[in-house]
Amino acid sequence: MKDKDQALRRGPKEKRKTISYAKWGYIFLIPFFVVYLIFTLYPQLLTFGYSFVKYYRVGRAWVGPEFCGLQNYIDIFTPAEGGTILVFKYLWNTIVLWLICAVPQFVVSLLLAVIFTSSRLKIKGQGFFKTVFYMPNVIMASAFGLLFMQLFSNVGPINSILVHSGMLDQPYNFLGKTVSMRTLIGVINYLMWFGNTTLMLMAGIQSIDDSIFESARIDGSGAFHTFRTITMPLLKPIFLYVLITSMIGGIQMYDVPHIMTGGNGRPDETSFTLVMYLGRVIGANNYGRAGAISVILFIFTAILSFFIFRSITKDNTD
Asked: Are 246 and 102 in contact (CB under 8 A)?
């Protein structure tokens, strides 16, 4: 009874000494929200607002901002000369360039991730290989672009080797053909990003309990059957994350095709991406139309992300 009375007398004092860690957690989050509101949310809202106004420069005179409703969107989807809707043309170019990079990227990255995380193979020196795989990711896209331009130019070493070896009678115009230009852009993006994808998939596989794979081996499951029935289903969340982020990066592709094509998407704008189109409109100081293109870019990205998410998770939602 005496101890109880002492605890009751001591309770209010102890309560005053306690620290509200939840409060400090919210306080530490304030800088993030301030930066987000100023540098992310506000520009996004401003861009969305610009998409509904006329705001461009003619000579040294500015027109607007003047509300014009959906006129910017109508202008973007109005067919150009020849009946082509440019925004769809550039979107198709962007998707093609991303697929050229993404298909080999995911095949090779998934294969490497399975090999280097296999408990059967027990490959040593994984830290070294992880560094080698990731190293191209830290090289600037401009350096890759300039390197490949020099290698595959008409007077570059690749053409010199092909001509002197007798494989070609004259230099091949790698930078002037649609297939070769798109392939080079895809190869550069593949080299830059396959290491990051490999490390992400390796981390996802290593998070799977080894006892599951051990049980499969005891039951006589082969390597391919184990991969199809155990590895991929359990790896699906990580794979889905990597695939969607890769798609978002592909839709926003700009630096490599801009450098490789000199900013004009040569030949015949077949390598001209949607973000390069946005850059052209911004360069023309047409901020209203640029805002509309940005909104369209966001909508396209959201639709493609939703389609990929639904197609991969369809079995789980049925």
From this structure: yes
